[in-house]
Amino acid sequence: MFRLIVSVGLVACRLSPFVKLVVDERELHEVYPGSRLAMDLPELWFDQKVNHKACSNETFKQRYFMNHQYYKKGGPAFLFIGGEGELSSKWAQLSILNKAAEEHGGVVFALEHRYYGKSWPTKDFSTNNLRYLSSRQALADLATFMVKVPLPKKNRSEAGKTKWIVAGGSYPGNLAAWVRAKYPNIVTGAIASSAPVFAKEDFFEYDQQVQRTLARYGGEACTKYHYDVFTALDAIFQSGDRHLIGQVKADFGCSDVADSAFIDSLAYTSGIVQYNRDNDVKDFCIRLKLNGTIFEKLADFARDFKREMGSKTCQQFTGLGEALEITPNPNNAMRQWTYQCCTEFGYWQTAPHPPFRAPAQA
């Protein structure tokens, strides 16, 4: 039986770093009337220890942004925690922390996570060099940053005596909760949005939430459609008929990948549910032909899959090649996040029991 391991987005343990904490610029005036983007904030660099567990003084440049347009002397500091992706200046300008800073005369910082974006502790991301990539090191980064980062020059003060409020969504939400628990002497409060603090390998509950969301926005017909399609695909691959399997992969535009990678990529629907921007889930269920025969459903699902894949090859769509790339690239987080999932979190989004989309296979 097939157990589907999701790999769309950020590999199997797909997380959304900034869910619900940041608004799009076009939505800014609707959410916060009168708010506006400041000029592009400059990149700032903090000298951070490579390994907080060692006596070595070796450091790397950790990128951060600071927005002090509302800061008043003695005001609080708000820290937006970066996660499994590149950080930009908007995280210090469009988050809910920016509104809080306006109300309380605070300053907003956004700190990029080690090994992501441009914050590279090592020259490459070989497996050995990723040994300093962990949530424990990241928590120590946050604590060190809050104690030592200089506050706005116009109102110099000791950062270590400032009241700090931290925030993050999804994995950074974990960090927000954990840094508050581990360093209560530094962190006054934390906002942990959609934080999956309970790490587990067999994360079948994720797929159950996908089912509930599809049912909510598309009705039971939408969930039945997916069960029928994945059950049929499961039977095809179990049959061992290489001609039939090859034909199915060709219909989906995935002749260039192994069977396991193809099966993995079919869970792209979970990404639509997780991010659900601009009614994506509702539109997704609407555009599917929910009431056809199983053959019509398979052909329809193949068309939608290729629509989602766009101009990419199936190999590119899976992101598996990016997970093997050891050269640092601000736009590539696949390898680093895969490493964190393998060494710390799991979060493997497996088929639930009983299954929603297909029985199971690895």
Write a structural description.
The protein is an alpha/beta fold and 362 residues long. It has helices at residues 28-31, 96-104, 135-148, 171-182, 205-218, 220-239, 242-251, 259-265, 268-275, 280-287, 294-309, 314-318, 320-323, 334-345; strands at 44-49, 59-67, 77-81, 107-111, 164-169, 187-193. It has a six-stranded mixed sheet with strand order 1-2-4-3-5-6. Helix 4 links the parallel strand 5 and strand 6 (187-193). Helix 5 (205-218) packs across helix 6 (220-239).
Secondary structure topology:
Blueprint: H1 28-31, E1 44-49, E2 59-67, E3 77-81, H2 96-104, E4 107-111, H3 135-148, E5 164-169, H4 171-182, E6 187-193, H5 205-218, H6 220-239, H7 242-251, H8 259-265, H9 268-275, H10 280-287, H11 294-309, H12 314-318, H13 320-323, H14 334-345
Parallel strand pairs: 3-4, 3-5, 5-6
Antiparallel strand pairs: 1-2, 2-4
Organism: Entomophthora muscae
Keywords: Hydrolase, Protease
Protein name: Thymus-specific serine protease
What summary fits the major beta sheet? 6 strands, mixed
Indicate the mean pLDDT: 85
Tally the helices: what do you get?
14
Beginning-to-end CA distance, first to last residue: 8 Å
Strand order of the largest sheet: 1-2-4-3-5-6
What's the β-strand tally? 6
Strand content: 5-15%
Give helix % range.
25-40%
Low-confidence stretches: 1-12, 15-35, 358-362
> In angstroms, what is the radius of gyration?
22 Å
Shape: elongated
Q: What is the H-and-E element order? A: HEEEHEHEHEHHHHHHHHHH
Which structural class matches the secondary elements?
Answer: alpha/beta
